[in-house]
Records
---
Amino acid sequence: MDKMWAGRFSKQLDKFADDFNSSIKFDSRMYRQDITGSMAHAAMLGAQGIISKQDSETIIDALEDILIDIESGALAIDMNAEDIHMFVEQVLTERIGDTGKRLHTARSRNDQVALDLRLYMRDEAAEVQRLICSLMSAIVAQAEKHVDTVMPGYTHLQRAQPITFAHHLMAYAMMLERDLMRIDDAVRRMNCSPLGSCALAGTTYNTDRMMVAEKLGFDGISLNSIDGVSDRDFCIELMSDFATVMMHLSRLAEEIILWSSWEFRFVELDDSFTTGSSIMPQKKNSDMAELVRGKTGRVYGDLMALLTTLKGLPLAYNKDMQEDKEAIFDSVDTVKNCLTVFAPMIATMTVREDNMLAAAQRGFINATDLADYMVRKGMPFRSAYKTVGQIVGKCVADGRTLEQLGIDEYKQFSDVFEDDLYDDISLASCVAKRISAGGTGRESVLCQIEHIKGVLDARAE
Ligand code: ARG
């Protein structure tokens, strides 16, 4: 079939070039947004008298039918079309003849694609946020079960101080809350309609851009038509937000992989989220977590790809910009898939409290508390710190823990030590004493859980 723009040409497009140029294979997923945008545009054309009321209504009805037919499968999207915009217009014209040819008055594919992508990304951003909330709920549910589960907290992957598993998990809930807010911000900036920018310079018709914007749920219109068709920062922002989500997931994924190893044995993933080996019968691998960690690289790559595509592009539209879609669609799909697999994986994992506690009992993670004990008895912190270092050195040499050292031995290091030190350095009391806001103490962690539950409730409304 002849291209819509064939008039100016004397030859057909080369077959391979035609395929190379076409974006239908990936932009067909925006069919709903394309049709909704066109319906709003047609309504505006009719309201402004740019086309007749009758034509406007005929177009809107036919577009509605096309949407129903695509959705029901009655109308298959033609993969030979140049893009989704051309396809919809072509079907419209086949169905209602010359009236259909009036739809593309006072717009261009340049503002049309900019509009469609914004509409599409607005929907997807909401879906990503919904999935982030599901993961946060799974995290909160686990945290609630483990407010009193003591584990070692790490720095440099060395046992550092006792914390609770709930406290550790809630750190991720806080990161995910910021991810939600970042996406809110990006959507707020993105939510203005570029339609009516036309090819780049605006139009000679008496359009009402605000009417279209309002119909489509935008907060306003882009104020410069050249920017309207050229702007893809909204994609960059969202992809950067998704990359940050993936970075967070990847850190948790890495911990889950470590915790599932025989070396740690802190958690056991449910069979439904692990795989076996083709040769080693004993293996139970955390493939889902590893894939999430791996796919993080892809989402970073998508962001880099689009940043690089846009770099140095002269205004306004250039075909390079068609490359925005594959990158952002891949980024959306990947982050959604990762969140989808992660939430139930967290919800179903078994926590090995005994192993966490056993690990906490080794590694002198109450050494800071012993120093704090000496400070409370009047010693300056630096001196206490030094003495505890010597005590730890002795314990390491003897293969003992701080709890196993007798009071007489303690007294050889300093006469501030009394029998009450043992209570003070018990793991339960180390955790309970961390009453500072945000700390690992019970009240603080419960407060964190309440906060995140509030965030989730507000978003569920
Ligand atoms: N498929 C194109 C894209 O995704 C639509 C815009 C085409 N505009 C043009 N002037 N060729 O960017």
---
Amino acid sequence: MRIVVKVGTSTLTHSTGRLNIRRVEELCKVLSDIKNAGHEIVLVSSGAIGMGVGKLKLRERPQDMPSKQAAAAVGQCELMYVYDKLFSEYNHTAAQILLTGEDMRDEARHRNFANTMLRLLHWGAIPVINENDTVATDEIAVGDNDTLSALVAVSVKADLLVLLSDINGLYTADPHTHKDALLIDEVRELTPELLSAAGGSGSALGTGGMATKLSAARLCMEAGTDMMILNGAQPAILYGVMDGAKIGTRFIGRC
Ligand code: GLU
């Protein structure tokens, strides 16, 4: 299987913005093991701005563009240092790819990206992708990594996109405010009711939320790619995905 795994800032970092070492170590170990079992792995990782905030000891996530871009420059560097170090421990090779919305929209740039990805996968590397936050202004950005990971999954014709989040999946209502909200285990169609059940952005350090996850699901489903939302608190949950366990929410791609 070719699997794209997207991990969000709230999964990778503590609320301080500093790295959640135990979690990232477990994530790299599990992904390495799944790769050893013969699968291809692409990692879409957020965390550049969040980790930059932590490393620079800023009191909160900045709002202005130059500060966000500068924080991302610091955080992306630390992020790749960590992935390179941890994947190397399991004898795997990480490769950094930074993208903007323009790279996805422009035909020639998109083709170059897809060709590079296929070559990296052929060589057995683990592409680690993020938005190129140091140059991506609002006009040219994809804007969030849920959407970016769906565009990547469709581009490389992945079998599955897994969004590792701080929530167990899609619920019938916001589970933080509705105690009776139920987890939806399978979605075959994005109905207006489902779309209205999705709220806004989730954490102080990341950008995504259920709304961006559902637009990612739409992109995947239309292209015939399955997508799952899972809780990334314990990355070993990915073994369950490989074993076909009924966990999280699975969006079924149209064939
Ligand atoms: N590219 C952003 C970062 O690395 C995150 C975007 C997102 O969380 O959706 O900080």
